[in-house]
Recover the amino acids of this structure.
């Protein structure tokens, strides 16, 4: 009978251990299910964000193209003159370069336009 009691006690101990393990497995299963649901949510968010990033990349490329186009257009409105002496006062002028523009016009452009008017190529010489 004592061997039966020892066996029953061992079985009870094993049964208790199995119940404990079953509870632990159920808790792990619950955590795993919750984690999988969160992973699915995050995967959806990542997919959405990838689409947003792709759209933003396209916007950046478009903006770079627009900026380049505007920079090229701005360059076409400028005149670069080499060898024309400029005083330090003119380079640091606070009048927006109006004095320098007038001097360039009077010394370089006005004589050319006057000659063109005399030759009949332009109707008038514009004033600055």
């Amino acid at each position: 009978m004592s061997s039966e009691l020892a066996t029953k006690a061992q079985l009870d101990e094993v049964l208790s251990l199995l119940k404990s393990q079953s509870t632990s497995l159920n808790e792990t299963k619950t955590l795993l299910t919750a984690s999988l649901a969160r992973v699915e949510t995050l995967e959806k968010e990542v997919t959405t964000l990838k689409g947003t990033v792709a759209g933003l990349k396209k916007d950046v490329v478009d903006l770079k193209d627009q900026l380049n186009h505007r920079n090229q257009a701005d360059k076409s409105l400028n005149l670069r003159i080499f060898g024309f002496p400029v005083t330090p006062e003119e380079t640091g002028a606070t009048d927006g370069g109006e004095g320098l523009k007038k001097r360039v016009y009077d010394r370089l452009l006005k004589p050319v336009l006057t000659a063109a008017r005399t030759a009949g190529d332009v109707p008038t010489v514009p004033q600055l």
Notes: The radius of gyration is 43 Å.
